[in-house]
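Q: what does this look like with pyridoxal-5'-phosphate bound?
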Amino acid sequence: MADYKNFGTKTIHAGNIKDTQFGALTMPIYQTSTFVFDDCAQGAARFAGQEDGFIYTRLGNPTTKMLQDKIAALEGGEACQAAASGMGAISACIWSIAGAGKKIVADKTLYGCTFALLSAGVTQYGVEVEFIDTSDFDALKKALTDNTCMVYLETPANPNMKITDIAEVAKIAHGYNKDIKVVCDNTFASPYCQQPLSLGADVVVHSATKYLNGHGDVIAGFVVGSAEFIQKVAMFGIKDMTGAVMGPFEAFLILRGLKTMEVRMMRHCENGMKVAEYLESQPKVTKVNYPGLKSFKGYEVAKKQMKNGFGGMISFEVATRAEGEKLCNSLKLCTLAVSLGDAETLIEHPASMTHSTYSAEDLKEAGIQEGLIRLSCGLENAEDIIADLDQAFKQI
Ligand SMILES: Cc1ncc(COP(=O)(O)O)c(C=O)c1O
């Protein structure tokens, strides 16, 4: 694969497979479930891994392969495995590392379904899970035990944007046991802003539903890491455990979305900063969580590890849930919907929506307040997003 240096060029050219049959510029959608063998010997050789080539789309597909190679290049990983959703990627990753008798140390602030998978899912199968604040290094050191196989975190974390120092966590975890896998969900930052593998993480997981696709029309996920680990995710996590494979049409749409990723991310970052600054000046807002604000607790670490910008995700607090609901219901341009990273600005109430899998006690423990609102700044003009927020604040 050619070694492209810069992010925008990689999104367009890295991993591309040349169409030698018809010379198509764009990768075709190989919408096929299975692939024809010349003879039994070839089928057997492919199953035995002795011959390259495709077998069956759950095990690999040309459209998806090109996308996987591109994502690996964007994250700076050796290899990538695509999945049917972010949760499909996270599940395949976890089942490729953890098992009965093993322990996962996880941050307590996570996307609601990841929290549910870790707190109520894998624990049914003999996996021990301890939730801590991974930005508290003493707590991390205390939580590591001989059976710990994974440290799992999001930074910025969904939904309160908590920042964890990836390099420091990797140093502590690997210092305790080099085989512990540090897994980072990079959905909120995207590889444009932050590349966890370059900071010492072993594995990156993504909901590609968000910034990587960027157009709100796909559910998809990725796992990125060493070639050896991704082989395990492909041949065990996806093939045998979850079966949650990405379809070729979704792969095509993400390839299309990626071509504009750098310019989209530049605008998301610019809008994020402008809207965060507006929110900071709004008297009805009691707290703004945005990694690019100097007033934000995680600012210094974010500046160090989010090298290209602070992204388009913001959360902020108003005094009560009722005020937050009134605000959301009064918006005309910003759209009340979960998900993020789309062209449209999306707003939601985590405690009752994306994080409704948390009990009231867990929400408190994770620092997710009743009055917390999550905003995904879209690609509209920042002035229009701000004007809409401003008219809605006047209603409360
Ligand atoms: C940080 C994060 N990780 C993972 C997921 C799950 O992704 P998906 O909805 O594609 O399964 C989400 C979904 O919102 C998310 O916000």
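The chain has two domains: 8-258, 262-393. The mean pLDDT is 97.
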